[in-house]
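Q: What does the assembly look like in three dimensions?
Context provided by user:
Components: two
Sequences:
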Amino acid sequence: MTAIGFGFWWIFTQSNPYLWPSIWLVGFTLLQLARLFHIRSFLNQDSQNKTNYSKHVYLFWLLSFSTTLVWSSALVFFSGPDSDQFIIVFTLVTGGIACVALSSLAHIPKIYPTYIFGMLVPVSGYYISTGVIENIFAGVTALLFIGFGAFISRRFRRNVAHSISLELTNLKLAETLQSENSKADRLNTDLLQEVNKRERSEKDLKKAIDEARAASKAKSDFLAVISHEIRTPMNGVMGMLDLVMDTQLSKLQRDYLETANRSAETLLRLLNDLLDFSKCDQGDLPMEKTAFLMRDAAEEVLSLMAGRAKKKGLDFKFVWDETAPEWVSGDPIRFRQVLGNLVGNAVKFTEQGSVSVSLERHEREGELIRYFFKVEDSGIGIESEAIDSLFEPFTQADSSMTRKYGGTGLGLAISRRLIRFMGGDIKVSSEANKGSCFCFDLLLAEPGAFEIERGVESQSKVPLEMSYAGRVLVVEDDAVNQRVIRLLLERCGLDVVVAENGKIGFEKAISEYWDLVFMDCHMPVMDGITATKKIREHEVQNGLSHTNIVALTANAKESDKAACLAAGMDDFLAKPVRKTGLKSVLDAWFPEAVILRP
Amino acid sequence: MLLNRKKEMPNVGDPEVARKTEYRLVELLFQNSEFALYH
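A: Here is the predicted structure of the complete assembly.
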Protein backbone atom coordinates (compact mmCIF):
# COMPACT_ATOMS: atom_id res chain seq x y z
CA MET A 1 0.00 0.00 0.00
CA THR A 2 2.91 2.31 0.82
CA ALA A 3 4.40 1.60 -2.62
CA ILE A 4 1.07 2.45 -4.26
CA GLY A 5 0.95 5.69 -2.20
CA PHE A 6 4.48 6.54 -3.38
CA GLY A 7 3.36 5.85 -6.99
CA PHE A 8 0.45 8.27 -6.58
CA TRP A 9 2.80 10.92 -5.19
CA TRP A 10 5.24 10.55 -8.09
CA ILE A 11 2.58 10.67 -10.82
CA PHE A 12 0.75 13.60 -9.18
CA THR A 13 3.83 15.73 -8.52
CA GLN A 14 4.88 15.49 -12.21
CA SER A 15 2.31 18.17 -13.06
CA ASN A 16 1.20 19.52 -9.63
CA PRO A 17 2.79 21.12 -6.54
CA TYR A 18 4.36 18.47 -4.30
CA LEU A 19 4.10 20.01 -0.80
CA TRP A 20 0.76 18.61 0.34
CA PRO A 21 1.14 15.27 -1.40
CA SER A 22 4.57 14.94 0.26
CA ILE A 23 3.09 15.67 3.71
CA TRP A 24 0.41 12.99 3.04
CA LEU A 25 3.03 10.46 1.93
CA VAL A 26 5.16 10.99 5.06
CA GLY A 27 2.10 10.68 7.37
CA PHE A 28 0.84 7.60 5.57
CA THR A 29 4.26 5.94 5.61
CA LEU A 30 4.70 6.60 9.35
CA LEU A 31 1.29 5.10 10.05
CA GLN A 32 2.13 1.99 8.02
CA LEU A 33 5.42 1.66 9.90
CA ALA A 34 3.51 1.93 13.19
CA ARG A 35 1.17 -0.85 12.04
CA LEU A 36 4.10 -3.03 11.00
CA PHE A 37 5.84 -2.44 14.32
CA HIS A 38 2.68 -3.36 16.22
CA ILE A 39 2.14 -6.52 14.17
CA ARG A 40 5.76 -7.61 14.59
CA SER A 41 5.69 -6.95 18.31
CA PHE A 42 2.60 -9.16 18.65
CA LEU A 43 3.97 -11.97 16.48
CA ASN A 44 7.33 -11.92 18.26
CA GLN A 45 5.70 -12.44 21.65
CA ASP A 46 5.96 -15.78 23.42
CA SER A 47 2.96 -17.93 22.78
CA GLN A 48 2.06 -17.77 26.51
CA ASN A 49 1.82 -13.93 26.40
CA LYS A 50 -0.27 -14.06 23.24
CA THR A 51 -3.22 -15.47 25.14
CA ASN A 52 -4.17 -11.98 26.33
CA TYR A 53 -4.63 -10.66 22.82
CA SER A 54 -7.74 -8.43 23.16
CA LYS A 55 -5.86 -5.16 23.57
CA HIS A 56 -3.63 -5.96 20.56
CA VAL A 57 -6.70 -6.63 18.46
CA TYR A 58 -8.28 -3.32 19.52
CA LEU A 59 -5.05 -1.46 18.74
CA PHE A 60 -4.84 -3.24 15.42
CA TRP A 61 -8.41 -2.18 14.69
CA LEU A 62 -7.62 1.43 15.58
CA LEU A 63 -4.47 1.53 13.42
CA SER A 64 -6.14 -0.07 10.41
CA PHE A 65 -9.09 2.31 10.65
CA SER A 66 -6.62 5.23 10.91
CA THR A 67 -4.89 3.91 7.79
CA THR A 68 -8.18 4.08 5.86
CA LEU A 69 -8.83 7.64 7.00
CA VAL A 70 -5.29 8.76 6.04
CA TRP A 71 -5.61 6.90 2.73
CA SER A 72 -8.94 8.55 1.93
CA SER A 73 -7.55 11.96 2.88
CA ALA A 74 -5.54 11.71 -0.34
CA LEU A 75 -8.70 13.07 -2.04
CA VAL A 76 -7.97 16.36 -0.24
CA PHE A 77 -4.18 16.34 -0.31
CA PHE A 78 -3.98 15.43 -4.00
CA SER A 79 -6.47 18.06 -5.26
CA GLY A 80 -5.39 20.23 -8.09
CA PRO A 81 -6.25 21.40 -11.62
CA ASP A 82 -5.45 17.96 -13.14
CA SER A 83 -6.85 15.84 -10.39
CA ASP A 84 -9.88 14.38 -12.25
CA GLN A 85 -7.85 11.63 -13.89
CA PHE A 86 -6.14 11.00 -10.55
CA ILE A 87 -9.53 10.57 -8.78
CA ILE A 88 -10.58 7.85 -11.23
CA VAL A 89 -7.33 5.90 -10.75
CA PHE A 90 -7.50 6.44 -6.97
CA THR A 91 -11.08 5.11 -6.88
CA LEU A 92 -10.15 1.97 -8.82
CA VAL A 93 -7.09 1.30 -6.65
CA THR A 94 -9.06 1.92 -3.42
CA GLY A 95 -11.77 -0.55 -4.53
CA GLY A 96 -9.09 -3.13 -5.33
CA ILE A 97 -7.38 -2.68 -1.95
CA ALA A 98 -10.75 -2.99 -0.15
CA CYS A 99 -11.40 -6.27 -1.96
CA VAL A 100 -7.94 -7.73 -1.31
CA ALA A 101 -8.10 -6.70 2.37
CA LEU A 102 -10.95 -9.19 2.86
CA SER A 103 -8.50 -12.11 3.04
CA SER A 104 -6.35 -10.50 5.73
CA LEU A 105 -8.85 -8.52 7.84
CA ALA A 106 -12.04 -10.58 7.90
CA HIS A 107 -10.88 -13.04 10.57
CA ILE A 108 -12.07 -10.91 13.48
CA PRO A 109 -15.52 -9.20 13.49
CA LYS A 110 -15.88 -5.43 12.86
CA ILE A 111 -12.31 -4.90 11.57
CA TYR A 112 -13.04 -5.49 7.87
CA PRO A 113 -16.41 -3.68 7.83
CA THR A 114 -14.76 -0.68 9.55
CA TYR A 115 -11.86 -0.86 7.11
CA ILE A 116 -14.03 -0.97 4.01
CA PHE A 117 -16.21 1.78 5.50
CA GLY A 118 -13.17 4.03 6.01
CA MET A 119 -11.86 3.31 2.50
CA LEU A 120 -15.06 3.69 0.47
CA VAL A 121 -17.32 6.18 2.28
CA PRO A 122 -15.10 9.25 1.51
CA VAL A 123 -14.83 8.17 -2.16
CA SER A 124 -18.57 7.55 -2.30
CA GLY A 125 -19.23 10.94 -0.67
CA TYR A 126 -16.96 12.64 -3.17
CA TYR A 127 -18.80 11.10 -6.10
CA ILE A 128 -22.28 11.85 -4.75
CA SER A 129 -21.27 15.45 -3.97
CA THR A 130 -20.43 16.12 -7.67
CA GLY A 131 -24.19 15.99 -8.49
CA VAL A 132 -23.55 14.24 -11.80
CA ILE A 133 -25.92 11.33 -12.21
CA GLU A 134 -23.22 8.82 -13.27
CA ASN A 135 -21.09 9.83 -10.27
CA ILE A 136 -24.04 9.52 -7.88
CA PHE A 137 -24.66 6.01 -9.22
CA ALA A 138 -20.99 5.15 -8.68
CA GLY A 139 -21.12 6.57 -5.11
CA VAL A 140 -24.28 4.63 -4.19
CA THR A 141 -22.80 1.45 -5.70
CA ALA A 142 -19.76 1.93 -3.49
CA LEU A 143 -22.03 2.23 -0.43
CA LEU A 144 -23.85 -0.99 -1.41
CA PHE A 145 -20.43 -2.63 -1.83
CA ILE A 146 -19.63 -1.74 1.82
CA GLY A 147 -22.72 -3.65 3.03
CA PHE A 148 -22.02 -6.57 0.74
CA GLY A 149 -18.37 -6.65 1.88
CA ALA A 150 -19.42 -6.73 5.55
CA PHE A 151 -21.79 -9.67 4.81
CA ILE A 152 -19.17 -11.58 2.78
CA SER A 153 -16.55 -11.01 5.50
CA ARG A 154 -18.81 -12.68 8.05
CA ARG A 155 -19.34 -15.75 5.87
CA PHE A 156 -15.63 -15.86 5.12
CA ARG A 157 -14.82 -15.76 8.86
CA ARG A 158 -17.34 -18.47 9.68
CA ASN A 159 -15.90 -20.75 7.00
CA VAL A 160 -12.33 -20.16 8.18
CA ALA A 161 -13.38 -20.69 11.81
CA HIS A 162 -15.14 -23.90 10.82
CA SER A 163 -12.03 -25.17 8.98
CA ILE A 164 -9.78 -24.29 11.91
CA SER A 165 -12.12 -25.90 14.44
CA LEU A 166 -12.24 -29.04 12.31
CA GLU A 167 -8.46 -29.10 12.12
CA LEU A 168 -8.19 -28.62 15.90
CA THR A 169 -10.84 -31.26 16.57
CA ASN A 170 -8.96 -33.65 14.31
CA LEU A 171 -5.74 -32.86 16.14
CA LYS A 172 -7.44 -33.42 19.44
CA LEU A 173 -8.91 -36.70 18.21
CA ALA A 174 -5.48 -37.72 16.92
CA GLU A 175 -4.00 -36.89 20.33
CA THR A 176 -6.74 -38.85 22.08
CA LEU A 177 -6.20 -41.71 19.66
CA GLN A 178 -2.47 -41.65 20.29
CA SER A 179 -3.06 -41.52 24.02
CA GLU A 180 -5.55 -44.40 23.81
CA ASN A 181 -3.09 -46.32 21.63
CA SER A 182 -0.41 -45.79 24.25
CA LYS A 183 -2.84 -46.95 26.93
CA ALA A 184 -3.76 -49.97 24.79
CA ASP A 185 -0.05 -50.71 24.30
CA ARG A 186 0.52 -50.50 28.04
CA LEU A 187 -2.52 -52.69 28.72
CA ASN A 188 -1.31 -55.11 26.06
CA THR A 189 2.07 -55.28 27.75
CA ASP A 190 0.38 -55.78 31.12
CA LEU A 191 -1.86 -58.43 29.62
CA LEU A 192 1.11 -60.20 28.08
CA GLN A 193 2.85 -60.15 31.45
CA GLU A 194 -0.33 -61.43 33.10
CA VAL A 195 -0.64 -64.20 30.50
CA ASN A 196 3.00 -65.18 31.08
CA LYS A 197 2.38 -65.08 34.83
CA ARG A 198 -0.72 -67.23 34.48
CA GLU A 199 1.07 -69.66 32.20
CA ARG A 200 3.77 -69.98 34.84
CA SER A 201 1.10 -70.40 37.55
CA GLU A 202 -0.67 -72.98 35.39
CA LYS A 203 2.59 -74.91 34.99
CA ASP A 204 3.21 -74.70 38.73
CA LEU A 205 -0.39 -75.77 39.38
CA LYS A 206 -0.10 -78.67 36.95
CA LYS A 207 3.13 -79.70 38.62
CA ALA A 208 1.46 -79.43 42.03
CA ILE A 209 -1.52 -81.47 40.78
CA ASP A 210 0.82 -84.14 39.38
CA GLU A 211 2.68 -84.20 42.67
CA ALA A 212 -0.61 -84.40 44.59
CA ARG A 213 -1.79 -87.22 42.32
CA ALA A 214 1.49 -89.02 42.80
CA ALA A 215 1.18 -88.51 46.56
CA SER A 216 -2.42 -89.72 46.47
CA LYS A 217 -1.40 -92.79 44.46
CA ALA A 218 1.45 -93.42 46.87
CA LYS A 219 -1.02 -93.14 49.76
CA SER A 220 -3.44 -95.47 48.01
CA ASP A 221 -0.66 -97.99 47.25
CA PHE A 222 0.54 -97.71 50.82
CA LEU A 223 -2.97 -98.38 52.13
CA ALA A 224 -3.36 -101.35 49.80
CA VAL A 225 -0.04 -102.82 50.93
CA ILE A 226 -0.76 -102.16 54.60
CA SER A 227 -4.23 -103.60 54.21
CA HIS A 228 -2.80 -106.73 52.60
CA GLU A 229 -0.08 -107.08 55.18
CA ILE A 230 -2.51 -106.68 58.10
CA ARG A 231 -5.24 -108.85 56.63
CA THR A 232 -2.90 -111.81 56.16
CA PRO A 233 -2.10 -112.27 59.90
CA MET A 234 -5.65 -111.16 60.78
CA ASN A 235 -6.90 -114.12 58.79
CA GLY A 236 -4.89 -116.37 61.05
CA VAL A 237 -6.03 -114.64 64.24
CA MET A 238 -9.74 -114.47 63.43
CA GLY A 239 -9.89 -117.87 61.77
CA MET A 240 -8.27 -119.51 64.77
CA LEU A 241 -10.56 -117.59 67.15
CA ASP A 242 -13.59 -118.84 65.22
CA LEU A 243 -12.28 -122.38 65.38
CA VAL A 244 -11.44 -122.24 69.08
CA MET A 245 -14.82 -120.77 69.94
CA ASP A 246 -16.50 -123.75 68.30
CA THR A 247 -14.75 -126.09 70.78
CA GLN A 248 -15.67 -126.99 74.37
CA LEU A 249 -14.69 -123.99 76.53
CA SER A 250 -15.10 -122.90 80.11
CA LYS A 251 -17.13 -119.72 80.73
CA LEU A 252 -13.99 -117.75 81.53
CA GLN A 253 -12.17 -119.02 78.45
CA ARG A 254 -15.16 -118.11 76.26
CA ASP A 255 -15.28 -114.65 77.82
CA TYR A 256 -11.57 -114.11 77.09
CA LEU A 257 -11.95 -115.37 73.55
CA GLU A 258 -15.02 -113.21 72.91
CA THR A 259 -13.03 -110.17 74.08
CA ALA A 260 -10.17 -111.12 71.76
CA ASN A 261 -12.68 -111.65 68.93
CA ARG A 262 -14.28 -108.22 69.54
CA SER A 263 -10.84 -106.60 69.47
CA ALA A 264 -10.02 -108.37 66.24
CA GLU A 265 -13.33 -107.23 64.77
CA THR A 266 -12.63 -103.64 65.86
CA LEU A 267 -9.24 -103.84 64.17
CA LEU A 268 -10.87 -105.20 61.02
CA ARG A 269 -13.48 -102.43 61.09
CA LEU A 270 -10.73 -99.84 61.36
CA LEU A 271 -8.97 -101.42 58.41
CA ASN A 272 -12.20 -101.40 56.39
CA ASP A 273 -12.82 -97.75 57.37
CA LEU A 274 -9.38 -96.77 56.15
CA LEU A 275 -9.91 -98.56 52.86
CA ASP A 276 -13.40 -97.07 52.44
CA PHE A 277 -12.10 -93.59 53.13
CA SER A 278 -9.27 -94.05 50.63
CA LYS A 279 -11.76 -95.23 47.99
CA CYS A 280 -14.17 -92.34 48.73
CA ASP A 281 -11.30 -89.88 48.55
CA GLN A 282 -10.36 -91.08 45.09
CA GLY A 283 -14.01 -91.28 43.97
CA ASP A 284 -13.41 -94.98 43.39
CA LEU A 285 -16.28 -96.41 45.41
CA PRO A 286 -18.59 -98.62 43.35
CA MET A 287 -22.15 -98.57 44.70
CA GLU A 288 -24.28 -101.66 44.38
CA LYS A 289 -27.76 -101.37 42.95
CA THR A 290 -30.00 -104.06 44.31
CA ALA A 291 -33.54 -104.08 45.59
CA PHE A 292 -33.85 -104.20 49.36
CA LEU A 293 -36.38 -103.47 52.07
CA MET A 294 -35.08 -100.26 53.55
CA ARG A 295 -37.07 -100.52 56.77
CA ASP A 296 -35.81 -104.06 57.37
CA ALA A 297 -32.23 -102.92 56.73
CA ALA A 298 -32.71 -100.04 59.17
CA GLU A 299 -34.26 -102.30 61.82
CA GLU A 300 -31.41 -104.76 61.40
CA VAL A 301 -28.92 -101.97 62.21
CA LEU A 302 -31.05 -100.58 65.03
CA SER A 303 -31.56 -103.97 66.67
CA LEU A 304 -27.79 -104.17 67.14
CA MET A 305 -27.70 -100.66 68.58
CA ALA A 306 -30.81 -101.11 70.73
CA GLY A 307 -28.96 -103.61 72.95
CA ARG A 308 -26.20 -101.11 73.66
CA ALA A 309 -28.73 -98.34 74.27
CA LYS A 310 -30.65 -100.54 76.67
CA LYS A 311 -27.46 -101.32 78.61
CA LYS A 312 -26.91 -97.57 79.11
CA GLY A 313 -30.57 -97.09 80.12
CA LEU A 314 -31.39 -94.89 77.11
CA ASP A 315 -34.85 -94.42 75.66
CA PHE A 316 -34.48 -95.75 72.10
CA LYS A 317 -37.13 -94.52 69.63
CA PHE A 318 -37.72 -95.58 66.03
CA VAL A 319 -40.22 -93.71 63.85
CA TRP A 320 -40.87 -94.63 60.22
CA ASP A 321 -42.81 -92.82 57.51
CA GLU A 322 -45.40 -95.54 56.82
CA THR A 323 -46.33 -94.03 53.44
CA ALA A 324 -42.77 -94.45 52.08
CA PRO A 325 -42.31 -97.24 49.49
CA GLU A 326 -40.95 -100.40 51.18
CA TRP A 327 -38.61 -101.51 48.40
CA VAL A 328 -35.80 -99.31 47.19
CA SER A 329 -33.01 -99.87 44.71
CA GLY A 330 -29.55 -99.05 46.08
CA ASP A 331 -26.65 -100.36 48.10
CA PRO A 332 -28.00 -101.96 51.30
CA ILE A 333 -24.52 -102.45 52.77
CA ARG A 334 -23.61 -98.78 52.41
CA PHE A 335 -27.05 -97.75 53.75
CA ARG A 336 -26.51 -99.91 56.85
CA GLN A 337 -22.99 -98.51 57.20
CA VAL A 338 -24.22 -94.88 57.19
CA LEU A 339 -27.11 -95.53 59.58
CA GLY A 340 -24.89 -97.70 61.78
CA ASN A 341 -22.24 -94.95 61.99
CA LEU A 342 -24.73 -92.24 62.94
CA VAL A 343 -26.82 -94.28 65.37
CA GLY A 344 -23.66 -95.84 66.82
CA ASN A 345 -22.27 -92.35 67.49
CA ALA A 346 -25.59 -91.23 69.03
CA VAL A 347 -25.59 -94.18 71.45
CA LYS A 348 -21.86 -93.83 72.14
CA PHE A 349 -22.00 -90.14 73.04
CA THR A 350 -25.27 -90.25 75.04
CA GLU A 351 -25.05 -91.16 78.70
CA GLN A 352 -28.68 -90.49 79.61
CA GLY A 353 -31.91 -89.48 77.92
CA SER A 354 -32.87 -90.77 74.50
CA VAL A 355 -31.78 -91.64 71.01
CA SER A 356 -34.33 -91.27 68.27
CA VAL A 357 -34.08 -92.51 64.67
CA SER A 358 -36.70 -91.59 62.10
CA LEU A 359 -37.54 -91.61 58.45
CA GLU A 360 -39.36 -88.28 58.54
CA ARG A 361 -40.75 -88.05 55.03
CA HIS A 362 -40.12 -88.81 51.39
CA GLU A 363 -40.47 -86.77 48.19
CA ARG A 364 -40.70 -87.91 44.61
CA GLU A 365 -38.18 -86.36 42.19
CA GLY A 366 -39.19 -87.73 38.78
CA GLU A 367 -38.31 -91.43 38.70
CA LEU A 368 -36.41 -91.20 41.99
CA ILE A 369 -37.48 -90.80 45.62
CA ARG A 370 -35.69 -88.66 48.20
CA TYR A 371 -35.82 -90.06 51.75
CA PHE A 372 -35.24 -87.73 54.71
CA PHE A 373 -33.73 -89.30 57.85
CA LYS A 374 -33.08 -87.84 61.29
CA VAL A 375 -30.89 -89.24 64.07
CA GLU A 376 -31.34 -87.26 67.28
CA ASP A 377 -29.82 -87.75 70.71
CA SER A 378 -29.64 -86.01 74.08
CA GLY A 379 -25.94 -86.67 74.46
CA ILE A 380 -22.88 -84.53 75.11
CA GLY A 381 -23.45 -82.44 71.95
CA ILE A 382 -20.83 -80.57 69.97
CA GLU A 383 -19.31 -77.12 70.51
CA SER A 384 -20.30 -74.76 67.68
CA GLU A 385 -16.68 -74.17 66.62
CA ALA A 386 -16.15 -77.92 66.23
CA ILE A 387 -19.17 -78.46 63.97
CA ASP A 388 -17.45 -77.16 60.81
CA SER A 389 -14.64 -79.69 61.02
CA LEU A 390 -16.84 -82.55 62.19
CA PHE A 391 -16.97 -84.25 58.80
CA GLU A 392 -13.25 -83.90 58.20
CA PRO A 393 -11.34 -87.19 58.47
CA PHE A 394 -9.63 -88.14 61.72
CA THR A 395 -11.60 -85.41 63.53
CA GLN A 396 -13.61 -85.71 66.70
CA ALA A 397 -15.22 -82.76 68.44
CA ASP A 398 -12.63 -83.02 71.19
CA SER A 399 -9.37 -84.97 71.07
CA SER A 400 -10.02 -86.26 74.57
CA MET A 401 -13.07 -88.06 73.15
CA THR A 402 -10.81 -90.45 71.28
CA ARG A 403 -9.39 -91.59 74.58
CA LYS A 404 -12.75 -91.65 76.38
CA TYR A 405 -15.06 -93.00 73.69
CA GLY A 406 -12.69 -94.58 71.17
CA GLY A 407 -13.03 -94.42 67.39
CA THR A 408 -10.82 -93.09 64.62
CA GLY A 409 -12.81 -90.02 63.59
CA LEU A 410 -13.36 -91.55 60.17
CA GLY A 411 -16.99 -92.61 60.61
CA LEU A 412 -18.63 -89.25 59.88
CA ALA A 413 -16.18 -88.42 57.06
CA ILE A 414 -17.01 -91.74 55.39
CA SER A 415 -20.74 -91.35 56.08
CA ARG A 416 -20.89 -87.93 54.44
CA ARG A 417 -19.02 -89.21 51.40
CA LEU A 418 -21.29 -92.27 51.13
CA ILE A 419 -24.41 -90.10 51.48
CA ARG A 420 -23.14 -87.84 48.70
CA PHE A 421 -22.43 -90.90 46.55
CA MET A 422 -26.10 -91.79 47.11
CA GLY A 423 -27.24 -88.36 45.84
CA GLY A 424 -27.90 -86.78 49.23
CA ASP A 425 -26.26 -84.66 51.88
CA ILE A 426 -25.97 -84.49 55.66
CA LYS A 427 -26.43 -81.59 58.08
CA VAL A 428 -25.85 -81.36 61.78
CA SER A 429 -27.23 -79.10 64.47
CA SER A 430 -25.98 -79.44 68.00
CA GLU A 431 -25.65 -77.76 71.36
CA ALA A 432 -23.03 -78.70 73.91
CA ASN A 433 -24.44 -80.83 76.76
CA LYS A 434 -27.92 -80.82 75.20
CA GLY A 435 -27.61 -83.16 72.26
CA SER A 436 -27.12 -83.42 68.51
CA CYS A 437 -29.34 -83.87 65.50
CA PHE A 438 -27.99 -85.34 62.26
CA CYS A 439 -30.35 -84.97 59.27
CA PHE A 440 -29.51 -86.63 55.99
CA ASP A 441 -31.28 -87.45 52.77
CA LEU A 442 -30.78 -90.15 50.13
CA LEU A 443 -31.92 -90.15 46.51
CA LEU A 444 -32.84 -93.73 45.63
CA ALA A 445 -34.70 -95.39 42.80
CA GLU A 446 -37.80 -97.52 43.10
CA PRO A 447 -36.97 -101.06 41.89
CA GLY A 448 -38.81 -102.89 39.14
CA ALA A 449 -40.73 -106.16 39.71
CA PHE A 450 -37.83 -108.35 38.47
CA GLU A 451 -35.34 -106.56 40.72
CA ILE A 452 -37.65 -107.02 43.72
CA GLU A 453 -37.94 -110.74 42.93
CA ARG A 454 -34.14 -111.08 43.00
CA GLY A 455 -34.03 -109.02 46.19
CA VAL A 456 -36.55 -111.34 47.85
CA GLU A 457 -34.41 -114.35 46.91
CA SER A 458 -31.23 -112.88 48.32
CA GLN A 459 -32.91 -111.68 51.53
CA SER A 460 -34.64 -114.98 52.20
CA LYS A 461 -31.30 -116.78 52.61
CA VAL A 462 -31.06 -117.61 56.28
CA PRO A 463 -27.65 -118.58 57.62
CA LEU A 464 -27.66 -122.22 58.50
CA GLU A 465 -25.14 -124.67 59.76
CA MET A 466 -24.40 -126.69 56.62
CA SER A 467 -22.36 -129.70 55.68
CA TYR A 468 -20.77 -129.89 52.26
CA ALA A 469 -19.19 -132.77 50.33
CA GLY A 470 -16.41 -132.43 47.79
CA ARG A 471 -12.72 -131.87 47.07
CA VAL A 472 -11.23 -128.46 47.55
CA LEU A 473 -7.76 -127.27 46.52
CA VAL A 474 -6.36 -124.38 48.59
CA VAL A 475 -3.48 -122.54 46.88
CA GLU A 476 -1.93 -120.47 49.70
CA ASP A 477 1.71 -119.73 50.63
CA ASP A 478 1.28 -118.58 54.24
CA ALA A 479 1.50 -121.54 56.65
CA VAL A 480 -0.86 -120.04 59.25
CA ASN A 481 -3.48 -119.23 56.66
CA GLN A 482 -3.09 -122.67 55.11
CA ARG A 483 -3.93 -124.14 58.50
CA VAL A 484 -6.87 -121.76 59.14
CA ILE A 485 -8.60 -122.28 55.82
CA ARG A 486 -7.92 -126.00 55.89
CA LEU A 487 -9.53 -126.31 59.36
CA LEU A 488 -12.48 -124.09 58.43
CA LEU A 489 -13.18 -126.10 55.26
CA GLU A 490 -12.66 -129.46 56.93
CA ARG A 491 -15.14 -128.47 59.64
CA CYS A 492 -17.65 -127.98 56.82
CA GLY A 493 -17.04 -131.55 55.73
CA LEU A 494 -14.83 -130.86 52.72
CA ASP A 495 -11.76 -132.79 51.62
CA VAL A 496 -8.92 -130.24 51.48
CA VAL A 497 -5.55 -130.34 49.67
CA VAL A 498 -3.07 -127.44 50.01
CA ALA A 499 -0.62 -126.18 47.39
CA GLU A 500 2.00 -123.69 48.63
CA ASN A 501 2.41 -121.59 45.47
CA GLY A 502 0.79 -120.84 42.12
CA LYS A 503 2.98 -123.23 40.12
CA ILE A 504 2.15 -126.25 42.30
CA GLY A 505 -1.45 -125.11 42.44
CA PHE A 506 -1.62 -125.00 38.61
CA GLU A 507 -0.09 -128.48 38.32
CA LYS A 508 -2.52 -129.92 40.87
CA ALA A 509 -5.49 -128.10 39.36
CA ILE A 510 -4.96 -129.56 35.88
CA SER A 511 -3.97 -133.04 37.01
CA GLU A 512 -7.02 -133.82 39.20
CA TYR A 513 -10.71 -132.97 39.48
CA TRP A 514 -11.62 -130.30 42.07
CA ASP A 515 -15.09 -129.12 43.15
CA LEU A 516 -13.58 -125.81 44.13
CA VAL A 517 -10.18 -124.07 44.12
CA PHE A 518 -9.35 -121.29 46.60
CA MET A 519 -6.55 -119.23 45.04
CA ASP A 520 -4.39 -116.70 46.91
CA CYS A 521 -3.09 -113.86 44.70
CA HIS A 522 0.31 -112.95 46.10
CA MET A 523 2.54 -116.01 46.23
CA PRO A 524 6.18 -116.82 45.51
CA VAL A 525 7.22 -118.70 42.31
CA MET A 526 3.89 -118.00 40.56
CA ASP A 527 1.08 -115.65 41.67
CA GLY A 528 -2.58 -116.60 41.70
CA ILE A 529 -3.55 -114.42 38.72
CA THR A 530 -0.98 -116.12 36.46
CA ALA A 531 -1.88 -119.56 37.76
CA THR A 532 -5.58 -118.93 37.03
CA LYS A 533 -4.84 -117.69 33.51
CA LYS A 534 -2.76 -120.81 32.83
CA ILE A 535 -5.52 -123.08 34.18
CA ARG A 536 -8.07 -121.40 31.89
CA GLU A 537 -5.73 -121.67 28.87
CA HIS A 538 -5.16 -125.36 29.62
CA GLU A 539 -8.91 -125.95 29.85
CA VAL A 540 -9.53 -124.30 26.49
CA GLN A 541 -6.62 -126.06 24.74
CA ASN A 542 -7.67 -129.52 26.03
CA GLY A 543 -11.42 -129.07 25.97
CA LEU A 544 -11.68 -129.69 29.72
CA SER A 545 -14.61 -128.71 31.92
CA HIS A 546 -14.54 -125.43 33.85
CA THR A 547 -12.89 -125.53 37.29
CA ASN A 548 -14.53 -123.23 39.85
CA ILE A 549 -11.87 -120.89 41.23
CA VAL A 550 -12.48 -118.48 44.12
CA ALA A 551 -9.94 -115.75 44.84
CA LEU A 552 -8.85 -115.79 48.48
CA THR A 553 -6.79 -112.67 49.00
CA ALA A 554 -5.93 -109.92 51.41
CA ASN A 555 -6.20 -107.40 48.53
CA ALA A 556 -9.67 -106.19 49.35
CA LYS A 557 -10.04 -103.28 46.90
CA GLU A 558 -12.65 -103.36 44.17
CA SER A 559 -9.91 -103.08 41.56
CA ASP A 560 -8.30 -106.24 43.00
CA LYS A 561 -11.61 -108.06 42.74
CA ALA A 562 -12.01 -106.89 39.15
CA ALA A 563 -8.47 -108.08 38.31
CA CYS A 564 -9.21 -111.52 39.76
CA LEU A 565 -12.45 -111.88 37.79
CA ALA A 566 -10.73 -110.65 34.63
CA ALA A 567 -8.07 -113.33 35.05
CA GLY A 568 -10.80 -115.99 34.96
CA MET A 569 -11.69 -116.52 38.63
CA ASP A 570 -15.37 -117.10 39.45
CA ASP A 571 -15.75 -115.55 42.89
CA PHE A 572 -13.91 -113.45 45.45
CA LEU A 573 -13.42 -113.88 49.21
CA ALA A 574 -11.42 -111.29 51.13
CA LYS A 575 -9.17 -112.14 54.03
CA PRO A 576 -9.57 -112.40 56.94
CA VAL A 577 -12.02 -115.22 56.22
CA ARG A 578 -15.07 -115.20 58.48
CA LYS A 579 -17.46 -118.08 58.82
CA THR A 580 -20.36 -116.17 57.29
CA GLY A 581 -18.35 -115.08 54.26
CA LEU A 582 -16.99 -118.55 53.69
CA LYS A 583 -20.45 -120.04 54.08
CA SER A 584 -21.97 -117.76 51.46
CA VAL A 585 -19.24 -118.77 48.98
CA LEU A 586 -19.66 -122.46 49.74
CA ASP A 587 -23.46 -122.13 49.44
CA ALA A 588 -22.98 -120.68 45.98
CA TRP A 589 -20.61 -123.43 44.74
CA PHE A 590 -22.00 -126.44 46.62
CA PRO A 591 -25.73 -126.13 46.00
CA GLU A 592 -26.58 -129.58 47.33
CA ALA A 593 -25.32 -128.96 50.85
CA VAL A 594 -26.82 -130.76 53.80
CA ILE A 595 -28.47 -128.61 56.46
CA LEU A 596 -27.23 -129.66 59.90
CA ARG A 597 -29.12 -127.14 62.08
CA PRO A 598 -31.01 -123.89 61.49
CA MET B 1 -14.04 -14.04 23.63
CA LEU B 2 -13.94 -11.69 20.66
CA LEU B 3 -16.17 -13.92 18.60
CA ASN B 4 -19.76 -14.72 19.45
CA ARG B 5 -19.59 -18.51 19.74
CA LYS B 6 -23.24 -19.14 18.92
CA LYS B 7 -23.14 -17.02 15.77
CA GLU B 8 -19.58 -17.46 14.53
CA MET B 9 -18.91 -21.09 15.58
CA PRO B 10 -22.32 -22.80 15.85
CA ASN B 11 -20.86 -26.27 15.17
CA VAL B 12 -18.10 -26.14 17.77
CA GLY B 13 -19.23 -27.74 21.00
CA ASP B 14 -15.90 -28.00 22.77
CA PRO B 15 -15.03 -24.70 24.58
CA GLU B 16 -11.31 -25.48 24.35
CA VAL B 17 -11.54 -25.91 20.58
CA ALA B 18 -13.54 -22.64 20.36
CA ARG B 19 -10.89 -20.78 22.38
CA LYS B 20 -8.06 -22.17 20.25
CA THR B 21 -9.99 -21.39 17.04
CA GLU B 22 -10.38 -17.74 18.07
CA TYR B 23 -6.70 -17.52 18.93
CA ARG B 24 -5.78 -19.03 15.57
CA LEU B 25 -8.03 -16.45 13.82
CA VAL B 26 -6.21 -13.62 15.63
CA GLU B 27 -2.87 -15.09 14.58
CA LEU B 28 -4.08 -15.28 10.98
CA LEU B 29 -5.23 -11.65 11.19
CA PHE B 30 -1.77 -10.50 12.21
CA GLN B 31 0.15 -12.84 9.91
CA ASN B 32 -1.90 -11.96 6.80
CA SER B 33 -1.73 -8.25 7.58
CA GLU B 34 2.05 -8.45 7.92
CA PHE B 35 2.18 -10.22 4.57
CA ALA B 36 -0.03 -7.48 3.02
CA LEU B 37 2.11 -4.73 4.46
CA TYR B 38 5.34 -6.26 3.16
CA HIS B 39 3.94 -6.86 -0.28
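Follow-up: The mean pLDDT of chain B is 85.
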